[in-house]
Amino acid sequence: MTTRPVHAVPRVATGPVMLDPGNFTPYYIDGLCGAFHRLGVDIRVISAPPLFEPVDPGGQYQVEHCFFPLLGGRVGGLLRHRTRLRQMVKALGYPSGLWRTWRALRHRPPSVLHVQWALVPLLDGLLARALKARGWRIVHTVHDPLPGPTRPFSSRHHRWFLSCADALIVHTPALAQQVVSAYPDAAGRVKVIPHGGVPQPLPSETDRVRARQRLGLEEGRPVLLLFGMLKPYKGLDDLLAAMPAILSRFPRCLLVVAGEALMSLSPIMELIERLGLRDSVVLRPTFVPQEEVASYFTAADLVVVPYREIAASGVVVAAQGYGRAVVVTRVGGLPEFVEPDSCGLVVPPRDPKALAAAVCRALGDPEELTRMGYRAWTRIAQDHDWMDVARQTRALYDAVKREPGPVSAGRTLMFVGAHPDDESFGPGGTLAKYAADGVRVVYACATRGEAGDVGADGQALGQRRWAELECAAAALGLATVIHLGYRDSGMPGSPDNRHPNALVAAPLDRVARDIVVAIRQVRPQVVITFDPIGGYHHPDHVVVHRATVRAFEQAGLPEHCPDLGTPFRSTKLYYWVPSRTMLRLGVRALRLVGRDPSRAGRNRDVDLASVAAVDFPVHARIRLSGRVVARRQAASTCHRSQLGPTGTTRRAAWILSRYVGGTDLFTLAQPRPRIGLSEVDLFEGVTPVKDVS
Ligand SMILES: [Zn+2]
User: Fold this and answer.
1) CATH architecture of 7-192
2) Which residues have C-beta under 5 Å from ligand 1, the single-atom ion?
3) Taking 50 as the threshold, does the pLDDT of residue 690 lie above it?
4) Per DSSP, what are the bridge partners of residue 191?
5) What are the residues facing 684 on neighbouring strands?
């Protein structure tokens, strides 16, 4: 006996989306997305035009400027040095940027939105929640978890934003601890993934000499480098205050400061004058283009990072990629970049004396300085390479996609049907409702609907209808669609009945076995299928009903086909039953337009009159909000091939569903319902279990 594979069709055809609204960390994004590209992950970046030079994605990922497109042109140039004004323009333009992002993503199959920076957490949270309701998962990198008046954790809005993230990334274990102690709800969702770096070819002594020539630095002097945008918290004044002590030991020492100044420089100039450092400091307060970055790090003997506060630092990682030792302050996660591999020295922040001592110690032992640099380079090359970081990030994306959302953690609902469209024309409202509530909703579909149009090429139609199903699944917010591997049998008497792979031709045990596999893989607490007459006597629906009833029992039996996966006992089995009121209205409507209700449907093969005459007990009534009904409508319109001009019945059903279809009805089959049972939630009495697979 061979086991037929269940084809889990990944509906998420598109890759994750990276969000950096302010274009704060273009090189970080470039490193990560470039590595994703090499891993074969298709990634899209939503950002803003660059303030300085653009980073060329080199065709490795797509960038869309949904935010502040205005800043790309001449306006951007004008605003570059007017920080206040630029921030005002950004604040005003932020909502429309989010709106553009929402418009760009809302109709895409759900994937992972990786938020690098949440600039207005209240609005970011709205976007994240709206996307989550459509099946998206949210990952957020907490670049800055430090407490403080302007810091994320002091803000209620930020906590609100964080509460909807499926996973939070931080760069070091200490930062993870900080996040959890400031925001205990994050426990269990925080993941440490290092800040990636690029191991460069290790510069030789000749490279160093050349780099100094290129930068016009005098040869033979020990060079300290402070690199990156100048902001008050970067501690340049602390380093300047340390310089006299350093110069007393190394009189020819030269401090090179390179990076755009985003603060007033006059106090710095004054300090340089006052301390008599004019010949010992080279101040280059302009933006450093990418091709010059290498020269600066290559020219340096020691990189100094005297920050007063920060979480993690791209400058440290960049320096290490060039094999340069660093002196850092004990703030945020910085010590963890240095201490574990002894690739630099750590000093307290705001302590020029300690800083001077550390710099002197490093410069005083050139051999150890080289060794520290080499260990730094090894650290990047071995553990912090972007490829490694991208792999870990991808694994996290996969994990959050598998994991149910925090709202309904551990809850899974599976519908077993026969054709693409059974979900939308059937219990689609209920599926959409639970998906919106955060339940993982899966549709296991037996066939691709190859017989849905008399006389059409079955295979081509099957492909077309499967694409329609994927469209509908996105509209409903389903997590996955599974094909059970059969072929549409058509209505009784049609030649499709006799196709070797036709569902009606398959032994019932085989169909049940395929559903057992699906149940054991998906592990739903609640299973929905057709009623005993398959809704309207469609033979495929009836087969699915019978096979699902059997599989529901068998999936939980340890002795039943242990080779088909770990046994899983679902809690409840429901039959979706079309509303009799609706059916009777439909019968009347057809009679009104002079049609025979016993020969309804596109192919005149649905006996609506006889269906309306059969009743099933109703144990659960699921009320659908207007939003959910609209979603079901949107899903229905995906099934274009089934909504042809002759589809009067379906169009009538469509109109009816719009106005009277606000409740889905279900018969409880398992466990046996007590008399008078009247539920309003299919998960009543179901305890969410943690998926152990
Ligand atoms: Zn069907």
Assistant:
1) 3-Layer(aba) Sandwich (3.40)
2) 418-419, 422
3) no
4) 169
5) none
CA of residue 286 relative to chain centroid, distance: 36
- Give the Å distance between the CA of 136 and the centre of ligand 1: 28
Fold of 405-670: Rossmann fold (3.40.50)
Question: What is the reported pLDDT for 251?
Answer: 96
What is the whole-number distance in angstroms between the Cα of residue 452 and the centre of ligand 1? 9
Cα–Cα distance for residue pair 392/400, rounded to 1 Å: 13
Partners of 417 in the β-ladder: 445
Please report how the helices 580-592 and 648-660 are oriented relative to each other, as an axis angle in degrees rounded to 10. Answer: 130
Q: Name the CATH topology of 205-383.
A: Rossmann fold (3.40.50)
The amino acid occupying position 466 is W
Give the C-alpha separation, 622 to 628, whole Å. 11
What are the C-alpha distances in Å from 690 to residues 406, 412, 524, 687? Answer: 12, 11, 11, 10
Q: Does the pLDDT of residue 444 top 60, yes or no? A: yes
Q: How confident is the model at residue 693 (pLDDT cuts 50, 70, 90)?
A: very low
Distance CA 564, CA 177 (A): 42
| Residue corresponding to tokens 């900080």 | 178
Q: What is the pLDDT of residues 586-638, one digit of tens each?
A: 788 888 888 888 777 666 667 888 888 888 999 999 998 888 888 898 898 88
CB 19 within 8 A of CB 101: yes
Looking up tokens 């018969």, which residue turns up?
667
Which residues belong to CATH 3.40.50.2000 in the chain?
A: 7-192, 205-383
Do the Cβ atoms of 315 and 227 come closer than 8 Å? yes
Q: Using the mean position of ligand 1's atoms as its centre, give its distance from the Cα of residue 534 in Å.
A: 8
Q: Where in the chain is the domain with CATH 3.40.50.10320?
A: 405-670
In this model, does residue 578 exceed pLDDT 70? yes
Classify 332 as helix, strand or coil: coil
> Could you tell me the distance, in angstroms and rounded to a whole number, from the CA of residue 577 to the centre of ligand 1?
14
681: amino acid identity, one letter: D
Q: List the one residue out of 674, 456, 467, 664 whose CA is nearest residue 578.
A: 664
Q: How far apart are CA 688 and CA 282, in angstroms?
A: 63
Distances (CA, A) of 159 to 152, 154, 199, 223, 642: 8, 8, 36, 44, 46
Rounded Cα distance between 455 and 461, Å, is 10
